[in-house]
Design brief:
two-stranded antiparallel sheet; single chain; 3 domains; 5-stranded antiparallel beta sheet; alpha+beta; 175 residues; 7 strands
Length: 175
C-alpha cells in the first residue's frame, strides 16, 4: 500500500511524510492495488477472464485473457486497433469485474485480448521507442509554436510496435 501524502511537490521531493521516498509503507507508488478478493474460492475455480493492464501515464485498458496465466505486475503484450502494445497487468480476478461495473463497461462488450508475453526483441524495441519520446515531445512543442497553436504538449507515448503515437496536451480552448 502507499500513502498519498508522498506525492511529489513542486521541488520534486515527496510532500507529506518528508521521508523522501522512504515510507514506512514501503512504497510511494500511487498505482498500487491490493487484491482483497484473491482468496475467494470462485476466483481460483472459475477465474474471471478479463484483466486490467496499465500503460504509460496511468492509461488503463481491459483485455480478455483466453489462455495466459498472468499475475499482477507481469509485462504483457496486448492487441490494439493496429498492431500491439505492451503494458503491465495491474488487476486480475473478481476485482476487474467490479471495476468494469463501476466504469459502466459490459463484460460482453467487444474487448481486445492479451496476445502473449513479449520476447526480448519486442521489449528492446519498446524501450528504444520510450527513449525517443522526450525528443519527439520537444519537436512537437516546436511545431506547435511554429504553427501558432495555443497548446502545451505535456507528454508523448509510442505504441510498443511503433505504429501509433499519442500526444498528451492541454489547451484553454479547442485546438
Amino acid at each position: 500500500m502507499s500513502c498519498n501524502s508522498c506525492k511529489s511537490g513542486s521541488s520534486g521531493l515527496p510532500r507529506g511524510c518528508n521521508n523522501n521516498g522512504n515510507c514506512s509503507s514501503g512504497s510511494c507508488g500511487t498505482f498500487t492495488v491490493f487484491d482483497w478478493l484473491s482468496d475467494i474460492s470462485n476466483s481460483k475455480i472459475n477465474p474471471f477472464k478479463i484483466v486490467e493492464v496499465r500503460f504509460k501515464n496511468g492509461r488503463k485498458g481491459y483485455y480478455r485473457n483466453n489462455e495466459l496465466n498472468v499475475s499482477i505486475g507481469d509485462t504483457i503484450m496486448t492487441e490494439s486497433e493496429k498492431g500491439y502494445d505492451i503494458g503491465a497487468v495491474t488487476l486480475t480476478g473478481e476485482l476487474v469485474r467490479i471495476q468494469l461495473k463501476k466504469k459502466g463497461i459490459n463484460i460482453d462488450d467487444e474487448l481486445f485480448s492479451l496476445k502473449r508475453f513479449p520476447n526480448e526483441k519486442e521489449i528492446s524495441k519498446w524501450q528504444e521507442l520510450m527513449r525517443k519520446e522526450s525528443e519527439i515531445q520537444v519537436r512537437a512543442r516546436i511545431i506547435a509554436i511554429d504553427l501558432g497553436l495555443k497548446m502545451k504538449i505535456s507528454d508523448v507515448e509510442f505504441q510498443a510496435d511503433g505504429s501509433k503515437v499519442i500526444f498528451y496536451y492541454t489547451a484553454d480552448q479547442r485546438v
